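[retry 2/3] enoyl-CoA hydratase: previous attempt timed out, resubmitting with same input.
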Amino acid sequence: MITQHRHGDGDHVAELVLDRPEAMNAVSTAMAEALAAATAQLAADEGVRCVVVTSSHDKAFCVGADLKERNGLSDAQLVQQRPVARSAYGGVLDLPMPTIAAVDGYALGGGAEIALSCDVIVAGEGATLGLPEVSVGVIPGGGGTQLLARRIGWGRAARVIFTAEKFTAADAHALGFVEEVVPAGRARDRALELATLIAANSPVGLRNAKKAMRRGLDADLATGLEVEDACWRATAFSGDRAEGVRAFAERRKPQWPGR
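[retry 2/3] enoyl-CoA hydratase: success.
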């Protein structure tokens, strides 16, 4: 249900593939467990500098929660499933390295939330994105109410969530929902291209830059600058910083020690 591939020089780009094509990658309990396990493995891998989340289905990134499975769950079973779902979406959100979602086809409900859990979303022109949960009597519960508002602002997020509308890639881009739109079927290629650019940089710098951004996002400016300073110090006295300066002076490509 989740597969992994490595790309680029030194295999520093990990591709995390949503791979339940028979259900258009609907997130079942088993798939949520697999996603949580895969992201935990990636989080512990210091050789990975960027993760790209893709799909094995050419018409769907992920259509959200498996409502057929949910329909058969008792209230008690739904309560038991909740921590599993949270660990899956949280696993993507908490990856310490930069992440990119490559969205072609449908990214709805939990599928949109997997994408929102990534740092950058690249969408193909034929993509359809939305958080339609209120239309079936629930709310976005994979981080959507929090992540979308932080990404595009309260009013725009309110429109997306309260109307349960579905948006084209172009309209999602205009809202700030996605960062880049490419020709249909090219989202994965573009995401891997961006990931290669990212992975050429210092792994220590990448992780600390992401940490500073994430931890400072909801803090006041003074606190955020203190967070940034702590992350700067963790980077400035690293082997990566020493190698970066030395490589610049010697006009060569850095060989990052990653520590």
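[retry 2/3] enoyl-CoA hydratase: The first strand starts at residue 2 and ends at 7.
[retry 2/3] clearing retry counter.
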